[in-house]
Design brief:
With 507 residues, the chain is an alpha+beta fold. It has 9 helices and 23 strands. The protein folds into 3 domains: 38 residues; 232 residues; 207 residues, Jelly Rolls, CATH 2.60.120. A hairpin with a 4-residue loop joins strand 14 and strand 15.
């Protein structure tokens, strides 16, 4: 290439970049998708560009295609509107989930599920093509079994009364640390995500992708073992949903664009002639724990507790922190295969985090002098978590998320009790939770239903939520230990703590 041609080529590329930036300012959906697809400096190509060739290769391989959608889902809103019995301990926007919708062809038996729940034949696959999220601390993709096959003993009840409602993770997530893509960083990166229970279907879909020009390095497989979740269409098959989760964005507006206009296309891929039985094996799970604990900070945690109780001398109750487990409702978390064996509801819990909760429940009533001091180790600072948080939930049965504080807000919070010279204060945190923070630093003020909106700013009501009457509790989450790419072993953590101050729990 001579110098003149080279310069012309560079100018053309620069012009294309400038035009792309200009179109990103448009309010049209197409421009927003382009903005959501906009790459970091490392992005190599958009996976969406090769979808037409990929679909042709899938057809040549003997597959029929049904295109679905991937869209934002708000489980809090669905609970507020009576579509779900509870929120699955989720928080409203800006909690950021995507899920698959309309994945069931018209020719399939009609199921009494919402549009984000689907079934999968023994030789079918779900194929998701697109770009990963913008920079966030954590993202993941995971399929859950909502319910096992109908056993024939009763009329299948309509959702949400389906029994048993299980929410079992089929294996480990594909997350920010484990995803296959071409770029040095996992953000704004091209991926293909294949969900299937049949090894031959996996092989054929992968071969079609390679023939269409996709590199093998971007192909991710989520294998559904029929041992865990029997496949099939109709009463003989399990029901599933996929959750694509995103947390702690570097740029909130970039994540908002990604959620509003997801840069994906998704297809159900069905062989025209049934494939021979070739079931995927039970997945090998990542191992929790490194053998290194936070116990060396136990004396510092005790100092922090003592300093808090010295600061606040009124009536109080030290709450217990434990792995969240509700035996009266047969709900457990963190161990999906144990939940499967025991027939217990797993709530769509992932192995990428711990779920530690407080008890007994308390109240935070407007106009009443009561608050909670939450304190503990900053697990991200100690290297035991990629990110950590505590969240406040109202209603002991529906679990409305009304406030979350992330570890990036912890810095300096323990010094207010321990002083600036404590050698371990930078590894600890202490936050007040109150209905009215009165502009106090390091204080989380919960948001009522009047603040609930979707990503487009449209508000919605939640008549079942009464913050003056509902019992409340806290959940502590510690996502993905960097060394293991799965949640930390809770035996290696110093549990987060909480002290309620006020009249509600006076003995």
């Amino acid at each position: 290439m001579n110098d003149a041609v080279r310069i012309s080529f560079m100018l053309m590329v620069l012009l294309m970049i400038m035009l792309a930036d200009a179109s990103g300012a448009s309010g049209e959906a197409g421009a927003k998708v382009q903005k959501a697809n906009a790459s970091s400096e490392n992005q190599s190509f958009s996976a969406l560009d090769r979808v037409p060739q990929f679909l042709e290769e899938l057809k040549k391989a003997g597959f029929s295609l049904h295109e679905g959608k991937i869209e934002y889902i708000d489980l809090v809103k669905q609970c507020c509107e009576g579509m779900l019995a509870d929120t699955l301990a989720n928080n409203p926007w800006p909690n950021a989930y995507l899920t698959l919708k309309n994945m069931t062809p018209e020719s399939y038996p009609k199921l009494s599920y919402p549009s984000w729940i689907w079934q999968l034949g023994e030789d079918e696959a779900i194929v998701l093509v697109g770009q990963t999220p913008p920079p966030v601390a954590y993202f993941s993709y995971q399929t859950f079994m909502v319910s096992p096959p109908y056993d024939g003993n009763a009329t299948p009840p309509p959702f949400p009364g389906i029994e048993p409602r299980m929410g079992i993770a089929l294996g480990d997530t594909t997350n920010v640390a484990t995803i296959n893509t071409t770029n040095a960083e996992p953000f704004y990166s091209p991926i293909i995500y294949i969900i299937t229970g049949n090894i031959e279907a996996e092989r054929r879909v992968r071969a079609a992708a390679l023939t269409a020009g996709y590199p093998d390095s971007i192909i991710n497989i989520e294998a559904i073992s029929p041992v865990i979740a029997p496949l099939g269409i109709g009463p003989s098959g399990s029901a599933f949903y996929l959750a694509q989760r995103n947390a702690m964005p570097t740029n909130q507006s970039a994540l908002e664009d990604y959620i509003k206009y997801p840069p994906y296309r998704v297809f159900r891929v069905t062989p025209n002639a049934h494939l021979a039985a070739d079931p995927e094996p039970v997945p090998v799970l990542r191992v929790r724990g490194t053998g290194r604990s936070e116990m060396d900070l136990y004396p510092a945690l005790k100092r922090l507790r003592k300093a808090i109780l010295k600061e606040y001398t009124g009536a109080h109750k030290e709450l217990d922190t434990h792995v969240w487990w509700l035996p009266e409702r047969e709900i457990m978390l963190e161990k999906p295969y144990v939940g499967l064996q025991r027939g217990q509801f797993m709530m769509g819990a992932t192995r990428d985090t711990n779920y530690l909760a407080t008890s007994p429940n308390f109240k935070l009533r407007n106009g009443t002098d009561e608050f909670v001091i939450v304190y503990g180790v900053n697990h991200q600072q100690t290297g035991k978590a990629t990110y950590a948080s505590f969240s406040l939930y109202a209603d002991k049965d529906k679990w409305f998320g009304i406030g979350t504080t992330l570890n990036d807000q912890f810095n300096g919070s323990a010094q207010q009790y321990l002083g600036p010279d404590d050698p371990d204060a930078d590894k600890l945190y202490a936050f007040k939770v109150a209905r009215d923070c009165k502009e106090e630093a390091y204080c989380m003020q919960p948001s009522g239903p009047e603040s609930f909106t979707d990503p487009w700013g449209v508000p919605y009501s939640c008549p079942d939520l009464n913050m003056d009457e509902d019992e409340m509790f806290l959940i502590f989450r510690n996502y993905m230990e960097p060394e293991t790419n799965v949640s930390p072993d809770d035996n290696e953590l110093l549990y987060d703590q909480a002290i309620y101050f006020g009249p509600y729990l006076e003995s």
